[in-house]
Design a protein that fits this description.
With 375 residues, the protein is an alpha/beta fold. Helices cover 38% and strands 15% of the residues. α4 packs parallel to α6, α9 packs across α10 and α9 packs antiparallel against α16.
């Protein structure tokens, strides 16, 4: 791939966030987090002119942070939009003053190149239960300011993860969104269907006026679960089988096969590999992390942040800083053997640089990934 061919660039412009969502990699691994930010100078160096920006989609999201925390956020958006780039920001919307949001709304209105995904999982009563530490009064003010700046025609979507605890506020949130001119959508995440989260909710004791913490279980059941949960559980079983094959162990009893175990495994392995839909390879997308490293996707950056599957040791066979954008250009890194060939080869579980993450999140046509439904 060349930068000319890239259609979408996900930018994690900060690893900082005001929220403490219990399912977030940041919350679960706070001891690993280093506060990094991508500056406007970094963006201008990586994308020095219109030819590097025009007609590309820049998604401000990532693994660890909320983009509006970055002090240069608005300036970065203005720069990219001025050079023909489309910008979409995902945010919990509970920071910055109203004028910041009016400015974003104006930019959206007058350029048609700024879109906001407002990640608000509830309304007044419940949003703070998953979006821990956010303040709905501030969110409500910022939503109104964005709509005001956009003169009543904002480009944006209120995206609502439906949990058991917030389902009853769904209709209220939808009506609120539409009153502002925003689209409304529900989101289902596989992690939420596979795990129960526990949130520490701060409460003020009315008698003593002291702040206390109360633990709340966050569950996703019934029709709120991801529709492809069983498919992902099947992939997990295949991953376990591939790991057993590496250690020469036999699969557990009770599995009836119509052919030899080796033949059946090889057939399934090829089907799994062929079904992978990679963000970079198939969708012309790349990911820039808050520490200025370049990755094919947010999933492998998430693995590198947590050092899952010893990804950092495995990729440590390459020169130090091989994917560091402070040392190399985007095109130099994309021409590295790992990006050009090894990554695709490594989808095979028998490859020495294989990562199960590629199978789990992108096999069976991205079965693992979020389901978003516009209402």
């Amino acid at each position: 791939m060349k930068l000319d061919n890239v259609k979408k660039i996900e930018l994690e412009i900060t690893s900082n966030c005001n929220a403490a969502c219990p399912g977030c990699a940041r919350t679960q691994n706070l001891d690993l987090v280093e506060i990094d930010s991508v500056s406007i100078e970094d963006i201008e160096r990586l994308f020095p002119s219109e030819e590097y920006i025009r007609d590309k989609n820049f998604k401000f999201c990532g693994v660890l942070g909320d983009p509006i925390v970055n002090k240069d956020c608005l300036e970065i958006v203005r720069y990219l939009v001025a050079n023909g780039g489309f910008c979409q920001l995902s945010t919990n919307a509970s920071l910055r003053d109203a004028e910041f949001w009016r400015d974003l709304g104006r930019l959206s209105r007058y350029t048609g190149m700024v879109d906001i995904n407002f990640c608000i999982d509830g309304h007044k009563e419940t949003n703070h239960i998953y979006r821990v530490n956010t303040n709905f009064d501030i969110i409500e003010r910022n939503l109104a300011a964005y709509a005001e700046g956009a003169e009543g025609t904002p480009m944006g979507t209120w995206i609502y993860i439906v949990f058991d605890h917030n389902e009853h506020e769904l209709a209220i949130a939808e009506e609120h969104a539409k009153s502002l001119g925003l689209q409304f959508a529900t989101r289902t995440g596989m992690r939420n269907s596979l795990h129960t989260w526990v949130a520490d909710i701060k409460k003020r004791d009315e008698k003593t006026k002291k702040m206390t913490k109360e633990q709340t279980a966050i569950t996703t059941t019934g029709d709120k679960e991801h529709s492809k949960k069983k498919i992902v559980e099947e992939l997990d079983q295949f991953i376990k089988l591939s790991q057993l094959k590496k250690t020469k162990k036999t699969p557990p009893p009770g599995v009836v096969m119509m052919m030899s175990e080796d033949d059946a495994y090889e057939l399934q392995k090829q089907q799994v590999i062929d079904s992978i839909k990679c963000k970079m390879v198939h969708e012309d997308e790349i990911f820039i992390a808050s520490n200025m490293t370049l990755w094919p996707c947010c999933f492998l950056w998430d693995s590198a942040f947590k050092n899952k599957e010893n990804i950092n040791e495995k990729l440590g066979i390459f020169d130090e800083g091989w994917n560091d954008l402070r040392k190399h250009s985007i095109e130099e890194i994309m021409s590295h053997p790992w990006f050009e060939k090894i990554l695709v080869d490594s989808w095979d579980p028998d490859h020495p640089l294989h990562f199960d993450r590629c199978i789990r999140t992108c096999a069976y046509n991205k079965a693992y990934q979020n389901e978003i439904k516009i209402k």
